[in-house]
């Protein structure tokens, strides 16, 4: 809630962000003269924010177009639920997959979100009004869900395991299970001796037709850049004895479950459903295995080529039965699909093979800092072939530079850290790096170029983005009503210069002339330009500010001291005098509060 105390533990906040259409209820006579009662509820959308213990928002679930309809007559009850769209966003800053889960109505390299004509989720139930004691009779039960795209990274998995208290140590859990098992055995024997027999009351269901439609899940997973072996996820996979690899768009197909005339308990029904999907999941394991990046993701290659060939023949055939003009459009659409899917599939496979080869060769360098820098650079994906060539040339140059300078720098670093043994080790890694790092640069260039080609193939496709920016929570840790402006500014700080300022707390901002804004944090003042993309023009640390002057009603001058001891200044030009007056007062207050904090707690002066 607004102005609440500092968050303790995990909390979920549900927000009805628009007006809810009130339920409509009416009664009418059906054709048989029975009174029918009909009720409808329509909700525009619901937002659910998931917070961890810090507090920090790590997931936001957005559900659009919820419709619930209930009808009843003398003979039966009818329930129907429709959801237009549902999406879950990763609200962690600098995450690999900003969108965790979304539903789409068609397959492709970049699956578009569900269109307004289709429902993402549809469930209908028809129940008989004339049920027997302890037996609920249903004439029809149906569930439909559109294609689900699930993309998660290791950091988010750790967050969700912690949120639901699933991060306990397996050894401790096993010991606790053993104690509870012993207690259960003792308690069981006590019940056998002392407890009277109890009659069991089973609640049965009878269903004429039970139908769950086929489901498709496109699964992607990205391991952590620097994995922590003590993290909940690593402990879990360690207990299971499995490895962790990259998976991209593994198509998991789950066949439908259609059963006629069911008579069983509710528990048996749930067991039968779970058993069906466990068996279906086991039959799809090979698709996940062949979607590993280390193998080049052959499943994605075959799927994309198959989709392109199918569209090449299917689209013209569909147009032919309509008109000659529709046939021409079908030929163009089918040919475009064939080219796009072929280029995407082939370039994706080549890039993944070269990337895997580059990772393998890079490990021979035995330079942990070089490996870390290379992994961090690989997380930034090119948006088109031009950017791919730029990234490729940059990484080729980096490989040649690191290899050439490593011969000299590695022995010096080793001698500083471990003396003579470190010097000898540095000589070895330097000589190996001369041969290995330029070769890795060539492989990285090939990877980046093919990644750019792959991105160009789907450059104009509709892509799914976050519904909103991550919730802003200030340094005081208080939960407040969502503020879109503060959330955007905090996200901007997290993205500037590759996340260099993600640990700064946003205070306030003001719009300036020439498409720029001034951002003020608890540590510094920044000016960001939006001429093309967000670019940091200059920054001044709070302890270096010597004077703040209001030169004109619309301009301010910040004087500060450089590392060399010389004085410098920056001018801030606002749109009008009202903004200038407000900004001067807020900035002056922030500087005074910072210096008062220094006098209270003490700190060293920081220079640019």
TrEMBL record:
<protein>
    <recommendedName>
        <fullName>Intermembrane lipid transfer protein VPS13-like C-terminal domain-containing protein</fullName>
    </recommendedName>
</protein>
<dbReference type="InterPro" id="IPR056748">
    <property type="entry name" value="VPS13-like_C"/>
</dbReference>
<dbReference type="GO" id="GO:0006623">
    <property type="term" value="P:protein targeting to vacuole"/>
</dbReference>
<dbReference type="InterPro" id="IPR026847">
    <property type="entry name" value="VPS13"/>
</dbReference>
<feature type="domain" description="Intermembrane lipid transfer protein VPS13-like C-terminal">
    <location>
        <begin position="468"/>
        <end position="575"/>
    </location>
</feature>
<dbReference type="GO" id="GO:0016020">
    <property type="term" value="C:membrane"/>
</dbReference>
<dbReference type="GO" id="GO:0045053">
    <property type="term" value="P:protein retention in Golgi apparatus"/>
</dbReference>
<comment type="similarity">
    <text>Belongs to the VPS13 family.</text>
</comment>
<dbReference type="Pfam" id="PF25037">
    <property type="entry name" value="VPS13_C"/>
</dbReference>
<comment type="function">
    <text>Mediates the transfer of lipids between membranes at organelle contact sites.</text>
</comment>
């Amino acid at each position: 809630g607004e102005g609440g105390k500092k968050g303790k533990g995990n909390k979920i906040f549900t927000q009805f962000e628009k007006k809810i259409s009130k339920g409509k209820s009416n009664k009418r006579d059906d054709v048989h003269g029975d009174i029918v009662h009909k009720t409808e509820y329509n909700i525009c959308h619901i937002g659910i924010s998931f917070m961890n213990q810090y507090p920090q928002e790590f997931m936001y679930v957005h559900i659009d177009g919820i419709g619930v309809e209930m009808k009843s007559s003398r003979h039966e009850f009818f329930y129907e639920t429709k959801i237009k769209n549902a999406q879950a966003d990763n609200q962690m800053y600098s995450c690999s997959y900003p969108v965790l889960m979304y539903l789409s109505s068609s397959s492709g390299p970049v699956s578009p979100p569900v269109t307004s004509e289709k429902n993402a989720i549809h469930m209908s139930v028809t129940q008989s009004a004339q049920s027997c004691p302890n037996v609920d009779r249903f004439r029809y039960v149906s569930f439909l869900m559109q294609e689900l795209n699930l993309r998660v990274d290791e950091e988010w998995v750790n967050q969700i395991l912690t949120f639901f208290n699933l991060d306990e140590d397996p050894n401790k859990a096993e010991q606790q299970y053993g104690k509870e098992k012993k207690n259960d055995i003792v308690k069981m024997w006590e019940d056998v001796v002392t407890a009277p027999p109890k009659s069991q009351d089973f609640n049965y269901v009878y269903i004429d037709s039970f139908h769950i439609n086929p489901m498709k899940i496109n699964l992607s997973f990205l391991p952590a850049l620097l994995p922590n072996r003590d993290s909940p996820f690593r402990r879990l996979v360690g207990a299971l004895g499995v490895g962790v690899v990259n998976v991209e768009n593994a198509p998991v197909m789950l066949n439908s479950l259609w059963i006629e005339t069911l008579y069983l308990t509710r528990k048996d029904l749930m067991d039968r459903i779970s058993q069906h999907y466990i068996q279906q999941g086991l039959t799809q394991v090979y698709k996940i295995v062949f979607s590993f990046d280390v193998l080049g993701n052959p499943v994605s290659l075959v799927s994309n080529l198959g989709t392109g060939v199918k569209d090449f023949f299917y689209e013209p055939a569909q147009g032919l039965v309509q008109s000659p003009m529709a046939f021409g459009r079908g030929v163009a659409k089918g040919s475009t699909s064939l080219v796009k899917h072929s280029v995407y599939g082939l370039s994706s496979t080549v890039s993944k093979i070269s990337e895997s080869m580059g990772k393998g060769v890079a490990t021979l360098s035995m330079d942990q800092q070089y490996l870390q820098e290379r992994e961090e650079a690989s997380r930034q994906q090119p948006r088109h072939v031009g950017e791919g060539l730029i990234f490729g040339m940059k990484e080729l140059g980096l490989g040649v530079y690191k290899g050439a300078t490593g011969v000299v720098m590695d022995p010096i670093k080793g001698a500083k850290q471990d003396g003579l043994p470190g010097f000898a080790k540095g000589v070895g890694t330097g000589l190996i790096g001369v041969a290995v790092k330029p070769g890795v640069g060539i492989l990285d260039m090939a990877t980046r170029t093919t990644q750019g080609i792959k991105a160009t193939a789907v450059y104009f496709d509709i892509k799914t983005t976050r519904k909103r920016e991550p919730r802003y929570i200030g340094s005081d840790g208080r939960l407040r009503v969502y503020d879109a402006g503060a959330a955007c500014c905090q996200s901007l700080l997290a993205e500037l210069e590759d996340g260099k300022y993600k640990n700064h707390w946003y205070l306030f901002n003001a719009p300036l002339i020439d498409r720029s804004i001034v951002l003020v944090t608890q540590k510094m003042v920044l000016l960001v330009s939006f001429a093309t993309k967000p670019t940091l023009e200059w920054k001044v640390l709070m302890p270096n500010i010597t004077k703040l002057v209001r030169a004109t009603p619309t301009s301010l001058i910040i004087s500060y001291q450089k590392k060399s001891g010389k004085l410098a200044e920056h001018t801030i030009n606002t749109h009008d005098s009202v903004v200038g007056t407000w900004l001067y007062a807020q900035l002056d207050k922030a500087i005074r509060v910072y210096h008062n904090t220094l006098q209270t707690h003490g700190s060293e002066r920081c220079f640019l």
